[in-house]
Amino acid sequence: MHAIDVVEIVGALTILVAFAAAQAGKLQQRTITYQLLNLLGSGVLATIAAVQQSWGFLLLEGSWAVISLLGLLNLLRREKAD
């Protein structure tokens, strides 16, 4: 197994942990923690997809990262306003 494989697995696990925790009722989706986990995991996977020129995977993970980033920024703006 190469180092890139380990990084890729960690990125995927980051997203899966957030999703599983939300499904189990342990983590709310509209939280900074949830959005950060998704942003970090999808950002790692999008970077790997770009380097490997895996365009479909880049579209999926890049979109996931952008959506997570927007959600995170929205949450941070709300916290700052309160």
Number of domains: 1
Give the proportion of residues in helices. Answer: over 70%
Instruction: Tell me the strand percentage band.
Output: under 5%
Shape by Cα distribution: globular
Number of helices: 3
H and E order: HHH
Number of strands: 0
Overall mean pLDDT? 97
For the largest beta-sheet, the strand count, sense and barrel status come to: none
User: What structural category characterises the helix and strand content?
Assistant: mainly alpha
Low-confidence stretches: none
What's the end-to-end separation, in Å? 47 Å
Integer-rounded radius of gyration: 14 Å
Transmembrane segments: 6-25, 32-51, 57-76
Keywords: Membrane, Transmembrane, Transmembrane helix
Domain CBU-0592-like: 4-78
Protein name: CBU-0592-like domain-containing protein
Describe the structure in your own words.
The protein has 82 residues and is mainly α. The protein has one domain. The chain contains three helices and no strands. It has helices at 3-23, 32-51, 55-81.
